[in-house]
Design a protein that fits this description.
- The chain has an eight-stranded mixed β-sheet with strand order 1-2-4-3-5-6-7-8, with helices on both faces.
- The protein has one domain: 3-Layer(aba) Sandwich (Rossmann fold).
- By secondary structure, it is of the alpha/beta class.
């Protein structure tokens, strides 16, 4: 190839990469295509749109497992609900006794575009990923909204046979789940009634660290905000402010957490990858960031005996393939077949 052809090819590659990034960013900043029609009240702070696979306004005997699936940064809960139902069907008999729940964390542009009720909760475009207060109608954290869902599930009049709750998320949803597993107040009611809970963190762009240590210390050294929430423990939002980092870490380590990482999620230029210096300090791409975080946590005093990391072979940044893979079904429904779980 001549030098001119090489330059042209390089320029085209750069333009394509930039266009993909702009498309992803544009999609994130546009109103969602579909808004869930069901609602759950988050105390007196507002209402959250939600998809639910059964009528949970009445008693549901026979439901033994509840699975929450959290959408990514595009707020496309409809897409994730379809994946949740696909996983439920793939689980066979184990899926028949499960209820699938997909909440939707909307932004102000969504509420305005669809002229939604004034009590509809809305966050900044990405603030919901870290538990930030809502922009309206009241400053409810996205974690408060998840607490409200867990409170509904803890109601024995509605769920007399419930034995387990799984909170799972992919990509941006994985970011929510990892932070919620640190911060959650809502699991207390479940545990008080002997309902088990675990958290499934799939392919997030970043993690919340408990110390200043990072896999890429040189990047961290040149990044003033690298240790602020949602990447570290500094400047935590109000939902977490009453607990110290040590207290949050001890609770997190005690919780059941599965990290699901696609072995092909290795593109450092993926358009939806967090490329801020705060995230880059955690590694070059999602697969590396996940392994590095799990290794740092495992190296702490006492390790992390309740945390597991499962590689999902030959899958990249694809929520549907992650959730419906053998390891995804093992994480959600405790089915056999995940080689990484052996």
């Amino acid at each position: 190839m001549t030098s001119l052809k090489m330059l042209v090819a390089l320029a085209l590659a750069l333009i394509t990469t930039q266009a993909r990034a702009e498309d992803e960013d544009a999609a994130n900043r546009k109103p969602v295509k579909v808004v869930a029609t069901a609602r759950i009240e988050v105390g007196s702070q507002g209402a959250l749109p939600i998809y639910v696979s059964a009528d949970w306004s009445k008693s549901l005997p026979g439901i033994t497992r509840a699975i929450l699936v959290l959408h990514g940064r595009l707020r496309n809960a409809d897409v994730y609900y379809r994946s949740a139902l696909t996983a439920q069907a793939a689980a066979g008999d184990a899926g028949k006794s499960a209820i699938m729940i997909v909440p939707q964390f909307l932004a102000g542009i969504d509420v305005a575009a669809y002229h939604l009720r004034a009590d509809t909760l809305r966050w900044s475009l990405e603030g919901w990923e870290g538990g930030d207060p809502a922009e309206g109608p009241q400053p409810a954290s996205s974690f408060d909204a998840l607490d409200a869902i867990l409170a509904r599930l803890a109601d024995r009049h509605l769920f007399p046979d419930l034995k387990q709750v799984v909170v799972a998320g992919h990509s941006g949803g994985g970011q929510v789940v990892q932070r919620y597993a640190i911060a959650t107040k809502g699991e207390a009611a479940l545990k008080a009634d002997n309902i088990a809970i675990r958290y499934v963190v799939a392919n997030p762009s970043s993690y919340a660290y408990f110390s200043a240590e990072r896999p890429e210390p040189q990047i961290a050294a040149s990044c003033p905000g690298y240790n602020k929430w949602k990447y570290g423990m500094e400047a935590r939002p109000p939902y977490l402010a009453s607990s110290s980092p040590d207290e949050l870490e001890q609770r997190y380590v005690a919780r059941q957490v599965i990290y699901l990482l696609g072995t092909n999620d290795t593109n450092p230029d993926h358009p939806a990858l967090d490329k801020s210096c705060m995230a880059e300090a955690q590694g070059p791409y999602r697969y590396a960031r996940g392994h590095s975080y799990a290794a740092v946590m495992a190296a702490r005093d006492g390790g992390t005996p309740n945390h597991r990391l499962w590689d999902v072979a030959d899958v990249g940044h694809d929520g549907d393939k992650m959730l419906t893979s053998a390891c995804g079904l093992a994480a959600l429904f405790e089915l056999p077949g995940c080689a990484a779980a052996r």
